[in-house]
Amino acid sequence: MTLNEPDGAGTFADLELRPELLRALSGLGYEEPTPIQREAIPPLLAGRDLRGQAATGTGKTAAFALPVLQRTARSGGTAPVALVLVPTRELAVQVSEAFHRYGRELGTRVLPIYGGAPIGRQLQALQRGVDVVVATPGRALDHLSRGTLKLHEVATVVLDEADEMLDMGFAEDIEAVLEKTPGDRQTLLFSATIPARIDAIARRHLRDAVKIEIGREAPAPGEAPLVRQNAYLVARAHKPAALGRVLDVEAPSAALVFCRTRQEVDQLTETLNGRGYRAEALHGGMNQEQRDRVMARLRGGTAELLVATDVAARGLDIEQLTHVVNYDVPSAPESYVHRIGRVGRAGREGVAITLAEPREHRMLKAIERVTGQRIAVEKVPTVADLHERRLELARATLRETLLTDDLEPYRAVAESLAEEFDVMDMALAAVKLAHEATGGTTDEQEIPQVAAARTGEGHGGDRRSRTTASGMTRLFFSVGRRAGIRPQDLVGAIAGEAGLSGGNIGAIEITDKFSLVEVPQSAADDVISALQRSHIKGKKATVRRDRPAPSKRYR
Ligand code: AMP
Question: What is the mean pLDDT of the chain?
């Protein structure tokens, strides 16, 4: 199956998923499988091992969760039959939630296990029995050594975001956990990149694995259109506001906004209409008559935004379209190419805009690699940018009116006003009115800028300066070089157990007997409680705020 045919359909039903899963997917508004799901699900259902190169945003979680659910439905026992290892607490929660959503009708019991969560609840759940455990490697190992997690029944192991786990220093923990699972298990490894170390793990633990790579094939020459391509990194919570801001600045005459699911289409359409845009929803559930009506409103200019899923937008050719907006990063570079091909056709000018969450940054890079075109990552326009842009629009409107319109009918009004007012003041009033006509003035909220998610690189243990960076708090860890601690072990423990991303961790200093790590002030208490009496590289560690009088210890 080639990935160059996003139109080459194939439904979830074609993948022979159980009716309970199909109902869950349609309830979630998923209209069709993403490329990785299409390729991975059949071999996984057949019990094959798999090595998947796919970043966040490709739909990889469902690609492994659906087959696991199908194969483990109603195991009924107490010991887990599937284990998913993930690098961070945040991902453990997300992946568990995904399993829960898809497996609701099957009654699958899923438990996330990570540091920082009350251990009591995890113990109770484990005793009652769970089918799927989603764990950070450190915490999994903890439970294994306490004897509270039993892996002898595990039929499938998933290593999710394997490269991140290695970056965080979890390599040894992963090996130790895998050792406790049956030798005849099915093993899946997903990783955004496959450096030599990942390849080595795959060779050691996977047997006759199917290899899938998303974002590998370049589109045929000429397929990638020439359009201005921008992306904005925004936190999920700020996406609706960011979309509004970008639309205000871009002022498209007609835009097609892509969402992943029907639910998102409906929600976003409602949000946009609530914010004063004229948006219409288009999704696969609509009949031809409804679709025709929507299209007519767009063509006639009563609607300016069309919000759609990929399936619904199939075959649409809208002449007036100036902008394509990806409300999420598309699930494969090929779908990106396909979507933005809606603009920039036949020499028309077009703009493609993508809103990406920081963790989806890698997917943008994969798209750039495949298309050979750059996607400029811009800052979300500020309120000041918006003001400036609206003044520019007002100026352009007035200019055009001065150059092209017949203004004679207004002469009498202007002359009578001129008897009373200065002509310049009259011009200012005209600018004000033109400015107000460019849109509402209620959007005064700044949208927080975010940086791309970064993994644990660049945390040297060699920083000499002991001043704490502003906004950061220095934590003391009672383990150091003699305990074999390396920067990545600390980053791994903090990121994995306390849910901080590697990029948020500041300077790290490792001495023979202890280590100092800067973390954001706001996260310090969380980190301390998550790592209280934890093991780092198998050593017991106490963690607390570093004492404010360091001079004694450092001399
Ligand atoms: P992931 O790459 O696993 O992080 O998934 C990215 C997002 O895509 C998640 O929000 C999923 O809910 C969503 N998703 C996964 N598969 C599909 C699908 N077939 N159709 C629509 N959305 C999907």
Answer: 85
